[in-house]
Amino acid sequence: MADAERMTSRQRAILSTIIENYIETGEPVGSGTIARLQIGDGGGMSSATIRNEMAALAEAGLLEQPHTSAGRIPTAQAFRIYVEQLIGGVNPRIDAARLSARSRMQIDSSFAGLAGTHAVLERTSHILATLSSGVGVAIAAVADSDLLEHVHFSRLAPSRVLAVVVTRTGLVRDRVLALDRDLTAGELETAGNFVNENFRGWSVEHVRVELARLVEQERSEYQRMLDAVQQLWAKALPASEILTETVFVEGVANLIGSQADSEHLREMLAALEAKQRLVELLNAYIDARQESVRVIFDLEQQAPEMAGLVLIAAPARVGGETRGTLGVLGPKRMHYENTLNAVSYISQVFDRMLHAAE
Fold it and tell me: Contact, 170 vs 118, CB < 8 A?
């Protein structure tokens, strides 16, 4: 039995039972426990038969025996197989419609009265942390196609400016800019007024293109003001940023009890605080074109400090346009079915709420 395809139906049933029992209790699972649950083909099996099957699963690298315990716990590969069965097995269990009525009601009531992508995604991170055993994560992406509502520039110190950009979808992006030359408060006010009066309702990218065209075209006292506007806009929304992300994280405390290695936990928490790492992590694994929720086990390949965690995530769309990403970071021992269905359901609620509002 080198891979999942060579497992017998009985072995699959035993493995699923072990995983689900381990998720519930956190304790190694013995053959006696499985025998009492009466799984298998048509009825119960003897403990001896179950022990033989468990030995075969262990030999295949799907079970391991911690310390001197008589029970076994699932390996990372076992969890992968289990999730594959949940999503695409003979009887798939991942469907937003399968989420419990209680959870659906909790989600719906949490989003009641909210408006705008920013507010909905902020609440999303909270509700996902509440429903799961992990960290709720939501990233709001301001696409170049998003439309400008308002921009404001404030002088903080010589050559340092606070830029606040508000879009039509309700997203707010603020950034401290280090300028090549100092600008007075009056120059910043003029620059902000120029952008707001001339470019309200324009896409971020179109503002960038038009400013570049005007700077190239003008050769007058108007040039100095345009140069200032272009410098401010280029630094507030750099062309290298295809998406400008706002990151919401809730439930970090949920991880404290799941990691015994204090140094590893410290690195992990530091990474969660440095929210740009989450942006990089989700961008590395979540394709905006994907249609459904995805589960990623090998996070340490992209971020070593995330070893031991699993990411369950999906794009957040409105009418087919990606507005961000939502998901859960949690330990391998998590309630996969509930979490997958919650992420899937919230992605549908996100689309329904904001599509109706627009």
Answer: yes
The pLDDT, as a whole number, for residue 196 is 93
Q: Is the dihedral of CA 304, 306, 311, 314 positive or negative?
A: negative
Q: Specify the amino acid at residue 74.
A: P
The mean pLDDT value for 324-332 works out to 90
Nearest C-alpha neighbor of 300 from the set 281, 314, 283: 281
Between the CA of residue 357 and those of 139, 172, 205, 315, what are the distances in Å? 20, 18, 24, 19
Determine the Cα–Cα distance for residues 258 and 334; give it in Å rounded to an integer. 10
Length of the chain: 358
pLDDT digits (tens, 9 = 90+) for 178-207: 888 888 999 899 999 999 999 998 877 788
Record the tokens describing residue 342, joined without a space.
């919650």
Domains and CATH numbers, the chain: 4-74 (1.10.10.10), 96-143+243-357 (3.30.450.40), 148-236 (3.30.390.60)
SS3 at position 51: helix
pTM score, whole prediction: 0.70
Residue 8: how many other CB atoms lie within 10 Å: 12
Phi, psi of 357 (to 5 degrees): -70, -25
